[in-house]
Amino acid sequence: MDTQAFPEAPTCYLPGVDDAGKRCWHQFMSSSATLFPVVNDRLVEAIQLALIDILLLDLIAKSPGGSAPMSVLGKACALQPSRLTQQISRLESDGLVRRGPSQGDRRRVVVTITPHGRVRLGPALACYAKEIRSHYLGPMSRQQAIALGDACRRISSPLKANAGQSARSDRPSSL
User: Fold this and answer.
1) What are the pLDDT digits (tens) for 143-174?
2) What transmembrane ranges does the database entry give (predicted)?
């Protein structure tokens, strides 16, 4: 076993997972748990927007007409409805978005980015990119970053496909 590549001992017993696999999982969990709060704190300090705020604003801005249904935003950002409502309320109180009923279906709530939201988004994305370069891409070579991105894609693609199938199979049939 290569102790240079995996210096920490596994932290828990995982039946059927060898030591190298446990160390890889531990490193993934540790780096994720460390990276997200660091990036988020830096963003809040620099631009007074949290990472989730930037992701939501970017998603809304890229949506047709700069508007997106709340349900789409919740799914895209994996947020529970109450958490999403809280985030959107905060963005709305800052004048970055506005909420209203959908034109096509008055029961649906749509969030639209405001001109002020668009103005704030540009510098926010630049700051976000700087933090990603510094804390995520910086410690790796380009080849390592590409390999990590590919590994993450191989993990997430089947999970997303299965989640889509589960959501479809949970719906009542239209017989």
Assistant:
1) 999 999 999 999 988 988 887 666 555 555 44
2) none
The SS3 call for residue 108 is coil
Domain boundaries, the chain: 37-141
Express each pLDDT in 118-149 by its tens digit: 999 999 999 999 999 999 999 999 999 999 99
Cα dihedral: 49, 79, 30, 41 (round 10): 10
**Among candidate residues 41, 28, 42, 102, the one with its CA nearest the CA of residue 72:** 102
Q: How far is CA 92 from CA 31, 56, 99, in A?
A: 32, 12, 8
Give the three-class secondary structure for 22: helix
Q: Which residue in 151, 127, 117, 139 sits closest to 39, CA to CA?
A: 127
Beta-bridge mates of residue 68:
111
Q: Which pair of tokens denotes residue 39?
A: 């990036």
The model's pLDDT over 34-48, given as tens digits with 9 standing for 90+, comes to 999 999 999 999 999
Tell me the CATH class for 37-141. Answer: mainly alpha
Q: Read off the pTM.
A: 0.81
Tell me the C-alpha distance between 61 and 54, whole Å: 10
Give one DSSP letter per residue of 26-64, joined into a string.
Answer: HHHHHHHHHHHHHHHHHHHHHHS--HHHHHHHHHHHHSG
